[in-house]
What we know:
Elements: E1 3-7, H1 11-23, E2 28-33, H2 61-79, H3 84-87, E3 89-98, E4 112-116, H4 119-122, E5 131-140, H5 142-155, E6 160-162, E7 177-180, H6 186-189, E8 195-206, E9 213-216, E10 220-224, E11 229-232, E12 236-237, H7 246-259, E13 267-291, E14 294-304, H8 308-340
Parallel strand pairs: 1-2, 1-7, 2-6, 3-9, 7-14
Antiparallel strand pairs: 3-5, 4-5, 8-11, 8-12, 8-13, 9-10, 10-11, 13-14
Domain FAD dependent oxidoreductase: 3-320
GO molecular function: D-amino-acid oxidase activity; FAD binding
Subcellular location: Peroxisome matrix
Amino acid sequence: MIRVAVVGAGVVGLSTALCIKSQHPSLSVTIIANRFLDATTSDGAGGLFRPDQRFIGGVEPSVLKDWCQTSFDHFNNLIFSNIAAEAGVSQVSGYQLFNDSRPDPSYKDIVYNFRYLTKEELTIFPDHYKYGYFCTTFYVETRKYMKYLTKLLNEKQVPFIKKKIHSFEELVENYDIVVNCIGYGAKDVCHDNLIRPIRGQMIRVRAPWIKHFYYTDDNCYMIPNTDTIVLGGTRQLDDENTTVDLNDKDGIWQRCLRLCPSLAQAEILWDWAGLRPNREPIRVETETIKYGNKQLLIVHNYGHGGNGISLSWGTAIDAARRFSSLLNGINNQDKQLTSKL
Length: 341
């Protein structure tokens, strides 16, 4: 029996574990992580699908397009299913506003109803932006979606072990393949200097009258979820502070309030701060590591930065495909040994 460990229980780890277990139902798959559900970085995600190639460096355009389309199709199918509410996925339309013109986003032909804003539309906003576009996409309410993925994994009898992994050598005695979805933890565990933190901070409020999302080019966004609105944000490269900064909070609040003055009546619920694990390129590949006379097969899937939710299913499918190739290699070796005996 091939034994598999998926390390990391954010949205990427859960998605990858589910893809692998769904494709190989009889396989022994275990999820190992030191944080789960709302203790993960995924809990702080805005969850709006808008993965733009300009901010995802080093990935081949054809590969990124495939990841984007695969993820979009997955979430779109959930939206039009009878479990959309449980999964926390819904369509949402909104505006992206800029002070200068810029190239079209790479997801332009994936989302619905993409169009440029007219001059008349641009004048309705307080800061009178010079350029923008409107589209219909979706949001993923991560607290609900993570519980939904966990439920599916529990139904498939995938065990969860709470443990912090410091080195993959800890796993070599008990597992044959490790799927690495450890996010920013890969900096230490994999000695990966390409991964860098991008600090994010957001505020959750209750403002049910806001129905559209808004993104601007001056670090301001508003994303409506089922019962709350996500207000952000910050993109602070190489800042490892995971506590809420009051100056950043005030800056987020003032920027959002300037864009949407009615927020003055909103109920503030909670704050969040965390580190987006950014790597150029996102690492989806296999590796073999030797520890003495033993070896461990690794499938890496980490480094999504601020696009963890948007790309989670696409990279999970890609990682699962690479996993299947490793598994086939092991099975073929076993058959060759058996035939020689």
